[in-house]
Predict the 3D structure of the following.
Amino acid sequence: WVRTFRSNRFIALNDGSTGSNVQCVVDFERTPEDVLKRITTGAAVEVRGLLVASQGSGQAVEIQVQEVVVHGDSSPEEYPLQPKRHSLEFLREIAHLRPRTATFSAVFRIRHEAQYAVHQFFHEHGFYHWATPIITSSDAEGAGEMFRVTSLPADNPPRTESGEVDYSEDFFGQSTNLTVSGQLEGELGAMALGKIYTFGPTFRAENSNTTRHLSEFWMIEPEMAFYTLEDNMQLAEDFAKHIIRHVLDRCADDLAVLDQRLQQEEQSKPAAQRQPMGLVEKLNFVVNNPFVRCS
Amino acid sequence: WVRTFRSNRFIALNDGSTGSNVQCVVDFERTPEDVLKRITTGAAVEVRGLLVASQGSGQAVEIQVQEVVVHGDSSPEEYPLQPKRHSLEFLREIAHLRPRTATFSAVFRIRHEAQYAVHQFFHEHGFYHWATPIITSSDAEGAGEMFRVTSLPADNPPRTESGEVDYSEDFFGQSTNLTVSGQLEGELGAMALGKIYTFGPTFRAENSNTTRHLSEFWMIEPEMAFYTLEDNMQLAEDFAKHIIRHVLDRCADDLAVLDQRLQQEEQSKPAAQRQPMGLVEKLNFVVNNPFVRCS
């Protein structure tokens, strides 16, 4: 997909697999004008040519284009993601397109690496993945408000003789909810396989609109038989450090994008309110220092 | 946990991490009688001693026990999982304990390895994991009956002026369901990051009680930008073979348990109805042969 097309000559091409674009140098005198016009931000193009050491600065290699084929057009008047800085609020309104932006594609690539590191860590430490039920009739430890799951008609549900909703007619023969935690089943798993972890979606039906509240989110719950509190703390520390170290190793470019965005936002704050560390600095701090433990 | 305790002397001990037990040889003359009595199937015991080359057949090493500590008792009268063959139907009734059986612990260990291989395959092929919404208002391609998700009171939901259920009062301001597929959001992901896969729970509210129907199951959906049909087919074949090969490599013992169980079941069938291949043989056949492709 075309990120930008400068001077009828330089295509910044990106397939989403990394944040880095490939610069493609078009010979505009040899390229038909109707093709040149269709090379717009967001368009899907196929480029053939020679990969050569770059003449300009900013990239090690570039493609000297011999042929451009446009597979998908993108109207400059209609495509909302133009090459400029968009506010996060604006991007919320085009949630279907925001994964294409530099910021969000960085977030999703980092998220993927973090997720992979979760599985890797537990796998290498002898844990088994345990898929706990999403639809459940239990309430864990009363962790939060629950969504009801039903196949009864909302308009006119079946009633018992005393006039109450007859959940024996519902799909599972009783009232069911979306899980708030897989802990109960996780404990059963640990009592069978020794060490298990869950990693799946959980739900909260609390109507609190804070920046830290989601009604649907993925949660990780390890459960281990015969662990002491000390073992638990060690696992938590090793786990957090493994994930962060993996992301630092694998996502340097994407972290730099977010770090830069954060620093720009910090600049707009009064000096006293600015965070003492940048993003990457903060992650390195966590990895390189032992966690303080409260007794 | 104690699997069996024979002759007041041999504990078959298993922590669930593999299907293989460790044989622990107790010196019953030096062990207090009240401790010996508490070494029962299902009990949690801690054993200290020397790991030595085994005198008997059936295992390479065994533990010459110096001390046994019982951490958790298991009453032989009440604990339902005694060391004998249980029917799958019986095990359904004690779903909280069946992961401890040889058959189900094998299933769960194999499931874990298969799941890990899924993430590994996609990760190594440049795919990004994409977590698609579980609660949704879309119906994919009408893949199946949906469960409704609601925070409205079932008994007396709010109504509009015309008497219909007022979903604008529901949690998300509209009627929502459990997803039947993450495909729609997966396609958006592929149009941003190039190649993505989903791996999460999906739901069907169809009340068909067959052996192949589940109302809740985990599904994998890869979506790739710019793939041809040929690319798709190659990916599907490579994917299936990678998962099976990984499981064959890592789960030989657990597959042998299931293979044996299958063969016992096959023996009870008339010769004409028996499957031509055993389980491991069948898996090897899939891995070692190219898939036939219909044009």
User: Anything to note?
Assistant: Chain B touches chain A through 59 residues (CB under 8 Å). Chain B has seven helices and eleven strands. Chain B has a mean pLDDT of 93. The radius of gyration of chain B is 26 Å.
